[in-house]
Amino acid sequence: MNFYRLNTLSRRAVSAAGVFRMGSPTRSPRAAATVGLAAIGIALGAALSTGSVAAADVRSASARYQDTVASSSAASSRRSNRETPTVAAIRRASPSVVNLHGHKTVRQAVSSIGGAAPDVARQVNGMGTGVVIDPRGYVVTNYHVVEDVFEINVTLQDGSTTTADLVVSDPASDLALVKLRGSGPFPTIPRGHSNDLMVGEPVIAIGNAFGYVHTSTVGIVSALHRDIPVNETQSYRDLIQTSAGINPGNSGGPLLNIDGEMIGLNVAVRVGAQQIAFAIPIDQVLDTVTEMVSRHNDRRFVIGMNGTSEQDGGLRIVGLSKGGSAQLGGLQTGDRIMKINEDNIDTELQYALAVLDAEPGQKLRMEFQRDEETYETFVATLPATAASADPIASLAWQVIGVAVRPAGDAFTRRMNSQLKTSYRGGLLITDVRPGSAADQQSLRSGDVLLGIHSWQTSSLGDLAEILQHPEIRQGPNAKFYIVRRDQTLFGHMQLAAQPTTTRR
């Protein structure tokens, strides 16, 4: 079974690399015709006399006026019938859809008589689509759209152009986050949910199809929870199947419901088929992007706070690192963060993006609620170090060789729904110490530690109890469980023995 990715390379270039992704033209087409608007001039040629106007003339003018009103009303009625929910949905979402294009270098092996085939580098044009998810200009798209692109050029809906910078990416999930250059605010996509989709409900795709910017097509949800293999090393899981027409250049564009809300990110089509296309569900997209940004933040600085979004707004603090900057700023477990600087905080992603804009050493103004009262504090973004002041973090770095933080509720929800597990959570690995037990077993940033021996590591408290257990303190060859790319894996690693302490 073959699938095209709706990516940026030409078909010829990609098939030579062994992956049959969908290509795009090397030049963006222009509109084939220009619509001319004929100016309609209305001459007011009635000569007014100084005498009185006849009653018949008045009635005639009144009748003409009534005819004009009736005609205008009929035209208005016809226009309102034409303005269907599909028209309204496209109008609502289009301003937040951007077109991405650029150049990348592709290396191809060419035949050589009597020797090894040398690599030949050549430039190919590529294009795709992106969706603005934050007014500061953060755009989500597919990783394969921006992979190896030197300069990401962007065309907005109004025809203006700018460039974008790659912020974070995750090849495993084929997602990337870029940031538009220029002053905002930028219009953001209305977000729906993908956990309540119905087979048969109408959907709309918007994208840069074959270079025709802001192309809109319609279809229905054909099926849900599709697992699609792309090649020997990558597959997509739990996708939305749709009959909306999507083509090369549609990658990274939104799949909308009839209310104009984004419910998926278009990613692939079935090779040789008609109206069989696939999109990553929006809930999965946002959960993954949140994890990507949080990992990136953890590598830059330490705040020492973990939270979960509340239905009525704000981010509830569920965990604080001892001695972390959030605790030093006076925050407590149970506080609800409402604002960071001038940004309202309603989701974990909004919190991650607000922190992403900060620089190491900067103080963030946080507005929070406690016991129905609103307070303000300032929290510093301390430069990240693998071994922090937290004794549990230092012990994990010494014994296992990892820096970790709670993976969050988004990970737990996805893990339990997709992997059908009973784990309460996990610890996201943000760094691995070279030469450590974790390094020798090829653990890496982005893995989620689920357990050691027969104990779950669903929280930092769990990890503290495990590391302080007498059996673990002896440095055993311990079995561990992780999640990587939505797969549950296990292995064994030789933990470092901890020095014993004696009383004097």
Automatic annotation (TrEMBL):
<dbReference type="GO" id="GO:0006508">
    <property type="term" value="P:proteolysis"/>
</dbReference>
<keyword id="KW-0645">Protease</keyword>
<dbReference type="InterPro" id="IPR051201">
    <property type="entry name" value="Chloro_Bact_Ser_Proteases"/>
</dbReference>
<dbReference type="InterPro" id="IPR041489">
    <property type="entry name" value="PDZ_6"/>
</dbReference>
<protein>
    <submittedName>
        <fullName>Putative periplasmic serine endoprotease DegP-like</fullName>
        <ecNumber>3.4.21.107</ecNumber>
    </submittedName>
</protein>
<keyword id="KW-0378">Hydrolase</keyword>
<dbReference type="InterPro" id="IPR036034">
    <property type="entry name" value="PDZ_sf"/>
</dbReference>
<feature type="domain" description="PDZ">
    <location>
        <begin position="292"/>
        <end position="372"/>
    </location>
</feature>
<dbReference type="InterPro" id="IPR001940">
    <property type="entry name" value="Peptidase_S1C"/>
</dbReference>
<dbReference type="InterPro" id="IPR001478">
    <property type="entry name" value="PDZ"/>
</dbReference>
<dbReference type="GO" id="GO:0004252">
    <property type="term" value="F:serine-type endopeptidase activity"/>
</dbReference>
<dbReference type="Pfam" id="PF17820">
    <property type="entry name" value="PDZ_6"/>
</dbReference>
<dbReference type="InterPro" id="IPR043504">
    <property type="entry name" value="Peptidase_S1_PA_chymotrypsin"/>
</dbReference>
<comment type="similarity">
    <text>Belongs to the peptidase S1C family.</text>
</comment>
<dbReference type="Pfam" id="PF13365">
    <property type="entry name" value="Trypsin_2"/>
</dbReference>
<feature type="domain" description="PDZ">
    <location>
        <begin position="379"/>
        <end position="468"/>
    </location>
</feature>
<dbReference type="InterPro" id="IPR009003">
    <property type="entry name" value="Peptidase_S1_PA"/>
</dbReference>
